[in-house]
Amino acid sequence: xxxxxxxxxxxxxxxxxxxxxxxxxxxxxxxxxxxxxxxxxxxxxxxxxxxxxxxxxxxxxxxxxxxxxxxxxxxxxxxxxxxxxxxxxxxxxxxxxxxxxxxxxxxxxxxxxxxxxxxxxxxxxxxxxxxxxxxxxxxxxxxxxxxxxxxxxxxxxxxxxxxxxxxxxxxxxxxxxxxxxxxxxxxxxxxxxxxxxxxxxxxxxxxxxxxxxxxxxxxxxxxxxxxxxxxxxxxxxxxxxxxxxxxxxxxxxxxxxxxxxxxxxxxxxxxxxxxxxxxxxxxxxxxxxxxxxxxxxxxx
Length: 300
Fold this sequence. Notes:
By secondary structure, the protein is an alpha+beta fold. The protein has helices at 12-21, 114-127, 131-138, 144-148, 152-164, 170-190, 260-265, 268-275, 285-299, and strands spanning 42-43, 49-50, 74-79, 83-88, 97-101, 105-108, 192-196, 206-212, 220-221, 227-231, 239-243, 254-255.
């Protein structure tokens, strides 16, 4: 992907419903709310998103060696026909930590009536970003599916915030709305659910918001991935990615947007339905093999 993420995108509320359906509440990243951002972006049949713009290099948000564990070199590269992807620059042993990073942006869920507050909470978080961090965030992929599903109500709430809080009107308001809608789609595409484990009635955690990450946002999806993501602590927004098997130098890094466990437990149709929120039909090796096997069974 040029810049997708995960993140993981279903936004945090949609992802909560999805995970509940497969018995894995809170496991799915809300990144692709769904996981490009401009009109030249497109979703490819492989589950990668392509874009003509080059995503930012992994930079200031990455947690450096000495702060948490040890890291293995990875870099964002062009993938012919597929936009961007994250690659290992040297051999990485199984279970090694590839990288860990702080979020570019965190937007709290906004209370029980999420539908009434989510847009305002997101806009408040976006407004607090520095110009450099905001530009990095806006370089992430915004799924066309997410753009299409921004409701009239959400647009009205955004317009009210820009007029009432920021005092914008006319051309400035139109420009802010266009940028805000794209930013909201990028957030819903790439945000990962942040969980609170303090409530004893919810041992699997309660979703309290969504976080978007720079490097993680460049990782493509595979249903049987070679890496997995996790939080570095039960109250941490620091996200880490580790190798699930030995990874060769030059090999592309993949995670499952549906969560490591969900990818193993869900059938082909379930996975495709879950990934539809990112706007693509997965054509990873696992899906191709299962589709061929199902077709062979139907022919007999």
